[in-house]
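Fold this complex.
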Amino acid sequence: MAAAPVRSRRTDRQLHDLIRAREQSRGLLIAFEGPDGSGKTTQRRLFKNWLQTEGHQVVTTKWNSSPFVKPLVRARKEARALSPEEFCLLHAADFHYRLDTEILPALWQGETVIADRYLFTGLARDAARGLDFGWLLDVYWPLFWPDVVFYFSVSPETSGKRIAAERLPSYYEAGQDMTQMDDSIGSYTSFIGRVIQEYEALAKIFHFVTVDAEQSIDEQHKLIRSLFATSRRRSIDRFNREVLTAWLRSHPKA
Amino acid sequence: MATQSSKGVKPAKGRLIALEGTGGRSMAVAARQIERRLRQEKLPIASSGWDASDLFFQIAQGTRGLPAPPPQTLILLYATDLAFRLRWQIRPALEEGITVIAAPYVETVIGFGVGAKLPAAWLRRLFAFAPKPDETYRVPEAAVPADRRPTPSDSFIEFCLTHLRGGPASWNTEEIRSGYTGHLNRMESRGKSRVAVPR
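Structure:
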């Protein structure tokens, strides 16, 4: 998504000016990240309701949800037919499709986008599957930075207990493709520890805002609201110009 | 993947032959010509073609009315298909000492990415998981007769260009095609690929 040929011929300078002019009116991108069972979906719903009462137009985008790629992933997951590389690349294709067709158009129109999992989910899970981190960064290149990443931190034990109380984890969720264990709960407990390790490393590298997800739902929600109030919007010109320039080139009517 | 073993002695490790180009019947004909030549050398041969994983077929069946995917999404889907081909077709055959004709392989998708103005260095890093071929051939577009022009169902390039025309984004598909052809021409002029003319 670095640059792309289009029929419209706006110059780089014009596109740059367009991006700078949109800085204040564009929407915010807020990512909710964390392992399964960390309670982030509950918090995302509460936060979305609160934002709407504050007057924000809010759009939610979920991991692995594009109508274009999701059916391909679902069929292959059901057949347990994905290698770690294929698993990674398909989820990245889904992410790039949503970035281009859902996330960027909404942000450009001034809507706040809440991402229930962002590309860091892919990085954490794929690194836990043993894929090279440098290659993973290439798969998700170029990084489109969210304004804030809330990371819901829980121990592997808490994550495992919460998941086991609700349902049996699916084959890939439990990491059974990696552990080769028949017991999905046992496999999950083993695999989620690796995923959380990767998340903790990503939290430092990408400056996540960490929320202690062992706290009560109410405490977490209050904390998120106060953290959000004090967080600063990221300069799209400084952080995301490359992605936006490429997107605007292929969307001349934007 | 079609595997055609011959009675020749197997080499310790198979050779990987890449056949790059827009695809379609002409690629298939060129691949068969290479196969025939190799069979004369008593080499066991296998072939691996685009969309062995059925990803693109399923997209063609089920995504009507959806916004067209950007080039980067299409490239990641090609990478997924190639990872599948490597796992189930190419690597196992090479390990058995079989010569594999991969048509298309990496340079076709890199050419598409270059045509879409994506950085060649990034494309090479993305496809670093694919082993380098021992030989690379290219079917030039000019050598393809009008009645053998590839279609979106038998050509990755035509599939992509057709989808990119679907909107709502505005892609100059002729520029992408031109950039793609230029990439394969440069490969050829630098001696990194040889011409395979389908007859």
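Chain A has a mean pLDDT of 93.
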